[in-house]
Amino acid sequence: MADPVARADLMAYLRDWSDRPQDIPEAEPTARKTEHDLDPAILAIQGDPAYGEYLSSECTTCHQRDGSDQGIPSITQWPAEDFVVAMHAYKRKLRPHPVMQMMAGRLNNEEIAALAAYFAGLRN
Ligand code: HEC
103: Cβ below 6 Å to ligand 1? Predict the structure, then answer.
């Protein structure tokens, strides 16, 4: 597709409808900055992966540590920023899923950053 705008729109459309949008990577030339209005101070928090590992046991009753998707999306190896944005979207009820709203609602900013750092570094 020669037209870059049409190309980017098609990728965005496919990502919206995919149950594994992380498999349609945001790569040049179609990459777009993730749209969100999260406070940059929250995104700047350096998560502690060891603390994230400690917190992760309540996540891995559902999400697989090996990154496999068994009806529940894979959350390993995400760019930490995308992970933090997703968790805060549940926390602020911008994403509708009630279980994840409850999980994220119990976590503070440091805990979310720690989980993002831990899951980003998990290799299968
Ligand atoms: C009871 C099962 C369950 C538990 C426990 C759970 N999750 Fe989830 N999680 C889900 C489901 C189901 C979804 C898909 C929700 C949706 O459609 O928005 C999800 C979605 C997510 C997403 C977004 C995935 C995507 O592809 O957009 C992230 C990030 C996430 N969970 C992180 C966590 C973290 C971190 C924890 C632990 C603090 C956790 N989850 C605990 C079931 C769970």
Answer: yes
Compute the distance from residue 4 Cα to the ligand 1 centre, in Å.
33
User: Which residue from 58, 36, 45, 53 is spatially nearest to 104, judged by alpha carbons?
Assistant: 58
Q: Which amino acid is at 121?
A: G
The span from the CA of 122 to the CA of 78, in Å, is 9
Q: What tokens does 91 get?
A: 């926390």
pLDDT tens series, the chain, 124 aa: 888 788 878 887 887 787 776 667 666 555 555 667 899 999 999 999 999 999 999 999 999 999 888 889 999 999 899 999 999 999 999 888 999 999 999 999 999 999 999 999 997 6
Q: Which atom of ligand 1 is nearest to the CA of 119?
A: 35
Please indicate whether residue 24, judged by its CB atom, sits closer than 6 Å to ligand 1: no
